[in-house]
Write a structure and sequence with these properties.
CATH class of the largest domain: Alpha Beta
Shape: elongated
Bound molecules: S-adenosylmethionine
CATH architecture of the largest domain: 3-Layer(aba) Sandwich
Number of helices: 11
Largest sheet: 7 strands, mixed
CATH topology of the largest domain: Rossmann fold
Distance between the termini: 36 Å
Order of helices and strands: HHEHEHEEHEHHHHHHEE
Number of strands: 7
Strand content: 15-25%
Strand order of the largest sheet: 3-2-1-4-5-7-6
Length: 316
């Protein structure tokens, strides 16, 4: 399973909501709200909206909050789906929601056409921008508008992702897996949880796990510690709650733990790779103008002292 499908399967509603005090209801929504007058909300028509690289429908809550009829299609290359909480809110709104999982935005289906509003939050830059933006323009309605927020090299998200990449400790992740596998093997041998203490290898592995907890969790602060490894070790310690379960449950846990660490690393690496600086954004606006987009504008979006990203707006 790819790194993003793994993430969305866990039921997240947004990718970076946790990085901001109020999730996407904070500065991201404030920015979208500020565009309200340009969103194209016509009195008795519904807004045809497409969200590119939508994750689990990250902008559906915002659309619901507009209290205006909308027809939404979310497109993402990963195996995304609408979390039940968001689905319930959408059901009670004036909107209809369609999700297109496993669909790269470079290959939009024919059904996507006459789009009034194309949205993307930390999304399009993960795709082949040239292809995505030129094809999307052909699917817009005459006055259709694009509103996107892209990763900024100096944003809080980019800083946290760079830090996570540097915190990934492959050797310790491997040793944690070995320790859990040792305990797993010992449990099979001795036959009961109470007899585990008599197994020297298992005891050594348990002590190793205590050492990992001391190294990464004890006394760690968000500023000083290794947040990536603290999360990993915390997750690994849940293994001890599974000692009474069937062996295959623990085996699955051990392999999931490793895969999740690798997938998280990959997501952070992708984020760091797609973040843009001012000259990237300048080039992008020039390229978009050449494609036929008009009123192409980009700006730094900030909140207090933090950079949130680059806004990119354009008219078809
Ligand atoms: C950082 S996440 C953002 C998701 C969502 N907009 C949010 O803010 O929560 C980036 C998303 O882009 C998707 N993605 C990457 N490349 C893509 C492509 N070529 N076509 C469609 N989706 C893509 C990934 O699957 C992932 O869900």
């Amino acid at each position: 399973m790819d790194a993003w499908s793994r993430f969305w399967r866990q039921g997240h509603t947004t990718t970076f909501g946790d990085y901001f005090e109020e999730g996407y209801a904070g500065p991201v929504k404030d920015w979208l709200e500020s565009l309200r007058s340009t969103l194209g909300l016509v009195e008795d028509g519904s807004l045809r909206v497409v969200e590119l690289c939508c994750g689990n429908g990250s902008l559906v809550p915002f659309l619901v909050s507009l209290s205006h009829p909308f027809v939404y299609t979310g497109v993402d290359a990963a195996n995304v789906s609408l979390p039940s909480m968001v689905r319930d809110a959408a059901t009670h709104s004036q909107g209809s929601v369609e999700m297109l999982p496993n669909t790269p935005v470079e290959q939009l289906p024919e059904s996507i056409t006459g789009v009034d509003c194309c949205l993307s939050i930390y999304g399009i830059e993960y795709s082949e921008l040239q292809i995505t933006l030129s094809r999307m323009r052909e699917r817009m309605s005459a006055d259709g508008r694009l509103f996107a927020l892209l990763h900024h090299q100096d944003s809080i998200v980019a800083r946290m992702s760079r830090r996570a990449v540097s915190e990934f400790h492959a050797r310790d992740i491997g040793l944690v897996e070995d320790a859990l596998s040792t305990i797993q093997g010992a449990l099979q041998r001795v036959g009961s949880v109470s007899a585990l203490k008599t197994d020297p290898q298992s005891e050594q592995a348990r002590k190793f796990m205590n050492g990992m907890a001391n190294k990464y969790i004890k006394g760690a602060t968000l500023k000083a510690g290794n947040a990536f490894m603290a999360d990993h070790v915390l997750a690994a310690l849940r293994f001890f709650k599974l000692l009474g379960e069937k062996p295959r449950v623990r085996e699955q846990f051990i392999s999931d733990l490793r895969e999740e660490a690798n997938a998280a690393l990959e997501r952070h690496q992708q984020m760091v790779a797609v973040a843009k600086d001012a000259s990237d954004m300048q080039n992008l606006t020039t390229t978009m103008a050449a494609m036929g987009w008009s009123e192409v504008e980009t700006q730094e979006l900030t909140d207090k002292d933090d950079i949130i990203g680059w806004t990119l707006t354009a008219k078809a």
